[in-house]
């Protein structure tokens, strides 16, 4: 569902990567590794259409994202991709369940039962009506995982999703993220510096 063709990007005279090509299919997992400043986050932003392409191309379901209007790009991103970041970015005034339902409201596909099922899958059904301030860091990140998968995306892009968590919570969030994505047939690309968590998975090294 994702094709990356001869992708290149740099800032000024600093070239992060060039001629980068790979494809992603249903349920496939790929890990992006590299030191700080090597371009891991930049690459994810390019794949998500959050950063304008310089050279090469990115295709979602066979269609290039180059030249798409911001409105069309945002709508397709909402339906085709899920995004997880190191910080959970939950809405402070919304409950755990309401935060998970946000992508549904944006896509006009609100299904509270599906939201509750996701809450159950991440082990937080009893936290449905709590605000983020009442949740631990690990719980907030598990809510962020459920929110990213609410629209059943074809592609999940995660940027250091466990970077702010202790080892126990990191392993729990990592396992839940991959398990849920696999059940939905979602392809997953994760940028991380934690090589312990990703041992044995296909990797792409930058820098």
TrEMBL record:
InterPro entries according to UniProt: AAA+_ATPase, ABC_transporter-like_ATP-bd, ABC_transporter-like_CS, ABC_transpr_LolD-like, P-loop_NTPase
Keywords: ATP-binding, Hydrolase, Lipoprotein, Nucleotide-binding
Pfam families: ABC_tran
RNA-binding recorded as keyword: no
Classification via SMART domains: AAA (SM00382)
E.C. designation(s): 3.6.3.-
Protein name: Lipoprotein-releasing system ATP-binding protein LolD
Organism, as annotated: Meiothermus hypogaeus
Gene: lolD_2
